Known about the structure:
The chain is mainly β and about 60 residues long. It has strands at about 1-5, 10, 20-25, 30-35, 55. A five-stranded antiparallel beta sheet has the order 1-2-3-4-5, with no helix packed on it.
Amino acid sequence: MIRTSGQVVLFLDGAYDGWQGLLGSNGTGRYILLRKDDHGNARPGVGAKIGDHQCYVQK
């Protein structure tokens, strides 16, 4: 289960319980950006850094 607030996605159960990510999109598709060292803080407004993960929506 997830909850969204603006660009931030909060995972509410399962293996990612408590993790936050940022919703985004580009020419490849929609994704959730997860921070490498701080999965509990999505940090809106901060660009992607080396080691962050972009998880794309699967069709």
